[in-house]
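Lab notebook, bench 4. Still working through the backlog of constructs that have no structural model yet. Next entry is a single chain of 173 residues. Request: give me the structure tokens for it.
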Amino acid sequence: MNMKRKLLGAVALFAMFSAFEANAQSSQNINVTAQVQPTCVINGGAATLDFDFGVIDTATGADVPQSAGFTWRCTTGLAVQIELDSGDTPGSDPATARLLDAGGGNVLQYLLCHDASCTQPWGDGTTAPDVATVGGGMGNPTNETIYGVLDGTFAQGAAPGSYQETVVLSLNF
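Model written out:
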């Protein structure tokens, strides 16, 4: 009987501590949050993207094709417009004729386009169409090519010189 009392006492003591242990607990929810900001980056491989038509043979009047590629990344699902501004030469028009300037009123006409045959000029969002697309994620770069053609017939009347223009490539989101 003494053994039964000891066993019952031990069970009672265990039950009392178990109940005490369960009643001693307190809990609180933890709200864990994060935000992903809309982000885009252009990776041209350098600070500037070079688009060089080279030395122009004005005797032939042949158009001079060229292309340059760049990589861009944007946050997943982000609506993006890829635009090329009209450039820094007065009178340059993305839809009809961009202008390379050598100073003194000397210019060469060229286009920047979506396609290799240059039938779809690449625009600034106002005078010619830009590219409307969606970001595929920062870990999923997209390659894009800008095609161009320098007007060889127009170049036949060009004065010797070094012609240039700066065009800004933008990802608008």
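Notes after review: The longest strand covers residues 64-74. The longest helix spans residues 2-23. Flag for follow-up if needed.
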